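Observation: inputs received (chain + zinc ion).
Thought: call the complex predictor directly.
Action: predict_structure
Action Input:
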Amino acid sequence: MSVVWSPETRAHDPRHEVWVGVPTPAVEVAERVDAILDAVGDRERVLATPHGAEALASVHDPALLDFLATAHGHWLAGGYVEEVGQERVVPYVFPTDAMTAGMPTRLPTALHGLAGQFGYDTMTLIGPGTWSAAVAAADCALTATDLVLAGSTSAYALSRPPGHHATPGGYGGSCYLNNAALAAQALVDGGRERVAVLDLDAHHGNGTQAIFWERGDVLYGSLHVDPAAGWFPHWVGHADETGAGPGLGATRNLPLPEGTGDRAWLERVDDLADWVTAAGCDALVVSLGVDAAADDPESPLQVTADGYAAAGRRVGGLGLASVVVQEGGYHLPSLGGLVAAYLDGHESS
Ligand code: SP5
Ligand code: ZN
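Observation:
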């Protein structure tokens, strides 16, 4: 399968997250791109082509897109670098019900106030290259989708920063634009009638779930470490969330206990694959996070490279046109091998 990538995805260089108020070293780093490129071997490499702002608005609110495109410039003009030495946009207050208590609100003048309308956590900073990298990551997913719509059986998008935590109107979880959702929407726009997004990342893809929550034409199925056991995204991703309205039954969450290894993880991959088959889908998007791996610093799941290869065989065996989109995976020494293991499995079946 072709590997769609863009050198511009390296432009996002977050350096830190802010975790419980403390700067911790970033894990979603630009080196991930090269770790993966080095491992995908002699597969054909395709450069992503620009798809424009209109494509991004197919799943995101214009207000979010405007904010992401302009926030860092406004941050520099706002004096935060001189005053406190913070070079990246970090939200300060969040307009949840706890704060606003049902009262009317006004958009804040200060950017560190306004940022809380769009950013929903403190781990996802906006630096000088964030917007161009996020757009490039989306273009990777959209270009891979073009290849599939043109007749390729499958294509892999080396999208980074990742996307599955980005909601219609918000960014968080190291994600800014929802690359997998953009691919799924583009498959629908290209004439596919029922698209499944199968999310193998260690975390629940709350953004993708939110985007397709009330839709029956795009299914969202995910297996992930149980948010109720204390894991991001904490508030959503439970088994009783199944969609609403026309989307009722088109969301499926399989939360997993800490320590889940290959055997139990692959049984749940089987469950999702059977679910996709039963739903009669005609195209597939795989949110390929490899942070469920045992070595990964961001999750307590214990999946091996052999496990990812077996998942690839099972999912590839569905025989559906597939856009495989990169999500998480943070252990740089093993990252590329895990991705290659999945792709080998997917292609072999
Ligand atoms: C796409 C994706 O995999 N996003 C992951 C978002 C969850 N990140 C959680 C970070 C938790 C705190 N990290 C610092 C831990 C220090 N021990
Ligand atoms: Zn993840």
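Thought: report the result.
Final Answer: The longest strand covers residues 218-225. The first helix runs from residue 31 to 39.
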